[in-house]
């Protein structure tokens, strides 16, 4: 197998394809099974509509920034303050990335080392604990460094650090695992409490949350979501946090790209109001898989100590890709993109409603659409699997007060970031909604031996499945993922 040699011999060469083939050729010579899976993934993503709200398509420039020798460097510490020698170039890359992030979001400080959104949240948690609990106690005890504390004083500090309260959005209401879910380490770091949404409206009830804040008086008031479709008033959240002396922390992993692109402004932009913001860099922000913390200057030194506190070595190649993504997000076309993500989500929700499919809160103001498939008599697991068989990639999601629980669920979570990256607009969203509705209305849950409805198995007419695949193919043929890459050429070397 000599993919590169054959491609060059073919005569018609484009730069992006050449770079892809060169990398793939190197991998294929050593690990053909890995190369095969990479090419198959491109084929799969070209043949299915990606509606996972937390996924996107990064640019080839972002991907190129990740695939290089920067991955070989250890660089524990922070910019110009490393535990290893030879980090001059990593320093430059990290410094550029954090400055570009600060410029993009209008933040006082940025820390770009976290490997994921969960890492970013853990760094933020401990940065807040160190600033608000550890530092004052250390000063009160008359010490400058925790390593100098006698055992009894250290035990007292550890007890104080482990007994702080956090109020975050309940996972079942649309929050995130790291917001205090008992199976997540966040609930073991803090004494956690949760707020939810109104059973009547499905929306946050600020008066009820204010009552909880005054009763609990948490160290951290954590705002943000993984499955919520309406705007949040961050000015009001900051006012409520200030009333009880809490740190306002906002997890904007899902909607950071909408903030960066100006689709969320005013009181719906958390950066001017939060003490600390955390995010991933790969969702609506359309960068590499990774995380980041933004904060006011008060917390900067404490956040920057993510290593050695909770992180090991940063990933220099990913920080390089983050810098590229932040630069891309400052271009005018990214603003157009962010606005279109929201327009597309609203068109998708409207299209589903018009076709008799119920969406939570009747629509959306961000990139997420939540669908109640329980009203069609099926579980989210059945709907997710059936739609995957018909050309859609998405995920089931529990809804507030969901009787089906978090595994089977009564809902689906849809998102428009990836399809918008392909260039799709409102007409395509309406078409996609119609295809989805037709599939969902023809899913029939199987019957168990006891006569009950199965939560897993179902039947779907083969003609419906084929028609859906054909329509999906027609849509995707007009919006090809990474059109620079010739999949037909690669198919000669791999079984596709």
Explain the overall architecture:
The protein is an alpha/beta fold. The chain has three domains: 1-35 and 472-496, no CATH class; 69-322, 3-Layer(aba) Sandwich (Aspartate Aminotransferase, domain 2); 334-460, Aspartate Aminotransferase, domain 1, CATH 3.90.1150.10. Helices cover 47% and strands 13% of the residues. It is built from 20 helices and 16 strands. A seven-stranded mixed beta sheet has the order 4-10-9-8-7-5-6, sandwiched between helices. Strands 11-14-13 form a three-stranded antiparallel beta sheet. Strand 5 (165-169), helix 8 (186-189) and strand 6 form a beta-alpha-beta unit. Helix 5 runs parallel beside helix 14 (316-329) and helix 6 packs across helix 12 (297-303). It is globular and about 75 Å long. The two termini are 16 Å apart. The mean pLDDT is 96.
Largest sheet, in brief, is: 7 strands, mixed
Task: Indicate the CATH architecture of the largest domain.
Answer: 3-Layer(aba) Sandwich
Net shape: globular
Strand ordering within the main sheet: 4-10-9-8-7-5-6
Which class best fits the helix and strand makeup?
Answer: alpha/beta
Rg to the nearest angstrom?
24 Å
Tally of extended strands?
Answer: 16
How many separate structural domains? Answer: 3
Distance between the termini: 16 Å
Summed over residues and divided by their number, the pLDDT gives a mean of 96
Q: Write the CATH fold name of the largest domain.
A: Aspartate Aminotransferase, domain 2
Percentage of residues in DSSP E strands:
5-15%
Task: Name the poorly predicted regions.
Answer: none
Fraction in helix: 40-55%
The fourth-level CATH homologous superfamily of the largest domain is: Type I PLP-dependent aspartate aminotransferase-like (Major domain)
What is the CATH top level name of the largest domain? Alpha Beta
> How many distinct helices?
20
């Amino acid at each position: 197998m000599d993919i590169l040699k054959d491609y060059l011999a073919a005569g018609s060469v484009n730069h992006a394809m050449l770079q892809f083939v060169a990398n793939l050729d190197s991998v294929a010579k050593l690990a053909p099974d890995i190369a095969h899976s990479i090419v198959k993934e491109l084929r799969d993503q070209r043949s299915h509509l990606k509606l996972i709200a937390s996924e996107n398509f990064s640019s080839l420039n972002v991907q190129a920034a990740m695939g290089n020798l920067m991955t070989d460097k250890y660089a524990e510490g922070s910019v110009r303050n490393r535990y290893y020698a030879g980090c001059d170039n990593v320093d430059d890359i990290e410094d550029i990335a954090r400055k570009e992030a600060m410029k993009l979001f209008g933040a006082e400080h940025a820390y770009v080392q976290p490997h994921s959104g969960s890492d970013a949240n853990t760094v933020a948690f401990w940065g807040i604990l160190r600033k608000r609990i550890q530092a004052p106690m250390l000063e009160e005890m008359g010490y400058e460094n925790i390593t100098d504390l006698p055992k009894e004083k250290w035990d007292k500090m550890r007890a104080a650090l482990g007994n702080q309260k956090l109020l975050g959005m309940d996972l079942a209401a649309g929050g995130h695992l790291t917001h205090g879910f008992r199976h997540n380490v966040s609930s073991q770091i803090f004494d956690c409490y949760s707020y939810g949404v109104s059973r009547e409206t499905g929306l946050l009830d600020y008066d009820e949350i204010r009552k909880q804040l005054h009763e609990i008086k948490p160290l951290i008031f954590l705002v943000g979501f993984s499955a919520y479709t309406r705007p949040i008033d961050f000015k009001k959240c900051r006012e409520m946090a200030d009333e009880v002396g809490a740190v306002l922390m906002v997890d904007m992993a899902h909607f950071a790209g909408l903030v960066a692109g100006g689709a969320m402004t005013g009181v719906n932009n958390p950066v001017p109001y939060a003490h600390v913001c955390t995010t991933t860099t790969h969702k609506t922000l359309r960068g590499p898989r990774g995380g980041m913390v933004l904060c006011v200057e008060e917390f900067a030194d404490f956040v920057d100590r993510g290593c050695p506190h909770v992180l090991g070595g940063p990933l220099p190649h990913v920080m390089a890709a983050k810098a590229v993504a932040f630069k891309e997000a400052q271009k005018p076309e990214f603003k157009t993109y962010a606005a279109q993500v929201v327009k597309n989500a609203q068109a998708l929700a409207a299209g589903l409603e018009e076709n008799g499919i119920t969406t939570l809160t009747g629509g959306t103001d961000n990139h997420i659409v939540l669908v109640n498939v329980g009203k069609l008599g099926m579980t989210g697991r059945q709907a997710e699997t059936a739609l995957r068989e018909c050309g859609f990639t998405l995920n089931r999601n529990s809804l507030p007060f969901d009787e089906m629980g978090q595994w089977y669920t009564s809902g689906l979570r849809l998102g428009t970031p990836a399809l918008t990256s392909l260039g799709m607009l409102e007409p395509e969203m309406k078409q996609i909604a119609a295809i989805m509705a037709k599939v969902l209305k023809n899913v029939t849950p199987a019957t168990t031996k006891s006569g009950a409805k199965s939560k897993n198995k179902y039947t779907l007419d083969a003609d419906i499945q084929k028609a859906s695949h054909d329509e999906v193919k027609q849509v995707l043929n007009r919006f090809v993922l990474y059109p620079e890459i010739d999949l037909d050429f690669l198919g000669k070397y791999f079984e596709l």
